[in-house]
Every structure is written in structure tokens, then in C-alpha cells.
Design brief:
single chain; about 210 residues; alpha/beta; Spore Coat Polysaccharide Biosynthesis Protein SpsA, Chain A; 8-stranded mixed sheet; two-stranded antiparallel sheet
Length: about 210
Amino acid sequence: MSMQLKASGIILAGGRSRRLGRAKALEPFQGEPMIRRVISRLSQVTGDLVFVVNDQEQASALPITPDNVSLPYKTAVDLYPDGGSLGGIFTGLSAADSQWAFVVACDMPFLNVDLMNQMLSLRDNNDAVVPRTDGYPEPTHALYNKTCLPRMEKRLQNNDLKIARFFDEVTMCFIEEAEVRDIDKDLVSFFNVNTQDDLDRALSLAAEGR
């Protein structure tokens, strides 16, 4: 990783997995817990990792040790336990060692290193870099500067949890779908596993080498 691309990586691992009924981070995926695949790809573009969890019990269950995670890492317990993904992003960004952090969810097994590097190259003079698909932002596959923290916290304190609501208060760089498709033509970077059907499809995609 070049110093030009230095950023922390944040993996949101605090979800309750209500629809799947099992911890998504720990779900077996091609012979390893799903989160290990996410770690492997995110580690290629970041200098350290933050795992955001709901509590220490959840942190203890994660399959992460200094032996199997190549980067410095820490776990961060959600500062706003009922704050949804916005609370998780705020918690991770607060704990990150770098000014910038790349946020992903623990159930996104098809992260694309080329797309992440492209996003990292667009940080200058912006507070956040966020892809858009079908006209909507992908805020849990995005880059945030710590300059976003006060705006995030204001929303959290008001229980206004839609992530995109603070976007008009900061300098945004949106990557539109056409540009994303030049790198990831099927947009599988943003595929996440919520249900058993999602998991079955993800396993099929992985078997195809995605």
C-alpha cells in the first residue's frame, strides 16, 4: 500500500443478523468465516483496521487474532448502540488511526480492490467519497474523513439515522454507476448477505471466482 493511499479500514460487525438468524461475520464462506474474506480484501488498501461491534461478547467471537490479521487492528464498541449503520460508522471513524477511513460491512464478500483504490484517489478536497447505484448512495461502501464526525454526531443525537442526510453539510464526491461499472460491471462490490437466499447467491458467485 502506498502512503498516498493511507487510510484506516472500518468493518461494521455489530449487526444482529435478524433475517439470516446467524452471525453473518462468522458464517462459513468458502472454508473461512465470511469476515475473513472481507478483511483480506480491505487490508489491501488500508493501513489498519477497526472492527465495530455492539459489545465485548461480540468482539470476543470475531475470528481475529494477530496471527491471522496482517494489519494493526482494534475493536470499538458502538458509541450509539441504537444508532444503526450511522452509529457504527461514527464509532469506527472516531476510533480510526488515520484521518480517512474506508467503511464496509462484514457481509460484503465481493469487495473490489480496483474500485476501492479508485475511490481512494478521489479524496482530495472532499469530506467523503461515496458510490451511487440506481441514483442512490452506497454509504456502507464509502470513504469518510474525520471532518464528517460532528455532522454525524448531530444526527445521532437527534435520532436522525439516515446516513445520507448529512451529505449536504459536507463536501461530497459521488462516483456514479457508469464509472463504477467500468471497474465492477455487475456491481457485486455492494452485494451484502441479509437472508439465506442472499447467502446461496453469494456462494454461487464465489464459486464462479468472484
